[in-house]
Each structure stands twice: as structure tokens, then as C-alpha cells.
From TrEMBL:
It comes from Herbaspirillum lusitanum. The keyword Magnesium does not apply. It is an enzyme of class 2 (transferase). The gene is ppnP. The keyword Glycosyltransferase applies. The lineage of its organism: Bacteria, Pseudomonadati, Pseudomonadota, Betaproteobacteria, Burkholderiales. This is Pyrimidine/purine nucleoside phosphorylase.
Length: 104
């Protein structure tokens, strides 16, 4: 996992969800791909997906349950989880989560 992104465009307007419990900024790369960099405060939330996502955890910890699954999996700094397109996942953030969401 890289520690920085070079030669990118960052959109100034933040993406604020769940009354501020999740805040991110969109990063656009030269090839047109997009990622978001964000923070999720301790909470239990459900996210819906359009495109497939890879969630990269930079800090904090959480438990995640993908749509249609019964089991919860725990993730912490240095781990990732995949979410299919047109799906959803439940997340329980136990320690403020610093993440990168990779789309596509």
C-alpha cells in the first residue's frame, strides 16, 4: 500500500454522510480513475455501492458484514476488503477509521 498519491486532482467539496459520521474527499488520477480518502467515526452504518469497491484501512478498526452474508469480519490498519458492485455492507467502526476507497 502506498503512503501518498502523486499528480492528482483533489475535489475541494467534501462528501459528508450520516450526519458527519463519514467524511471523504474525491481524488482523481491522470487516467480518470477515482478514489476517496476519508474518515468514519465510531458508529454502525450501512453503505450501498454502485461500482465495485476495495476498502483499504489505513488506521482504526471495524467489523464488516457484506450483503447476504451472516458472518462479520474484523479489519484494521494494513488490511482491505472487497465489496461487489450494486451491493451493500454493514460496518461497525470501533475505533475512528482512516480509509481509502478504490472504485472499479
Amino acid at each position: 500500500m502506498t503512503t501518498q498519491f502523486d499528480n492528482v486532482t483533489v475535489l475541494k467539496k467534501g462528501n459528508v454522510y450520516f450526519d458527519g459520521k463519514c467524511v471523504s474527499h474525491t481524488v482523481i488520477f491522470a487516467d480518470g480513475t477515482k478514489k476517496t480518502l476519508g474518515v468514519i467515526l465510531p458508529a454502525s452504518l450501512t453503505f450501498n455501492t454502485g461500482a465495485p469497491e476495495i476498502m483499504e484501512i489505513n488506521g482504526g478498526s471495524c467489523r464488516v458484514r457484506l450483503k447476504g452474508e451472516e458472518a462479520w469480519n474484523t479489519y484494521a490498519a494494513g488490511t482491505t476488503f472487497d465489496v461487489p458492485a450494486n451491493s451493500s455492507f454493514d460496518i461497525e467502526v470501533t475505533e475512528t477509521l482512516d480509509y481509502v476507497c478504490h472504485f472499479g
